[in-house]
Design goal:
The protein has 146 residues and is an alpha+beta fold. The chain has helices spanning 23-26, 82-94, 112-120, and strands at residues 2-8, 17-21, 30-34, 40-44, 56-59, 64-69, 71-78, 100-102, 105-109, 124-131. The chain has a six-stranded mixed beta sheet with strand order 2-6-5-1-4-3. It has a four-stranded antiparallel beta sheet with strand order 8-9-7-10. The radius of gyration is 17 Å and the shape is elongated.
Length: 146
Amino acid sequence: MLEIRSRAKPSDAVPGGELELPFEQRQKTRFRARLASGEEVAVLLPRGDVLRGGDRVAASDGRVIAIVAEPESLLHIECSSASELARAAYHLGNRHVAVQVGAGFLRIAQDHVLAGMLRQLGAEVSPISAPFEPEAGAYAGAHKHE
């Protein structure tokens, strides 16, 4: 079985395969999965490593594998003002919810209770299917936004 034990530099070679994963699995460092080609892989990364869409990892046969963030069922949150959006982010953070922060929006995993709370705060909440790239946390280092 093909093994993935380390990251590759983003500039390393054209990817020789793709590994599409939801965020929950990209947080894990030990798991089995299948490449887009169907080939089975064992991921054995250093503990605490979170994979992001666009990352590259090195396979035991020398190939570079591209990580693809799988689309997931999410809630897309928008507000009529920056202060309302900040208030929504505060209440989500107070509940230790993983939140993706974008230009004028927040995204969280589907949750009908949180959707109701956000609507009561005046937010517009829409279900979408999209890759989920939540913030890494205050102590996890920088995270680029696009």
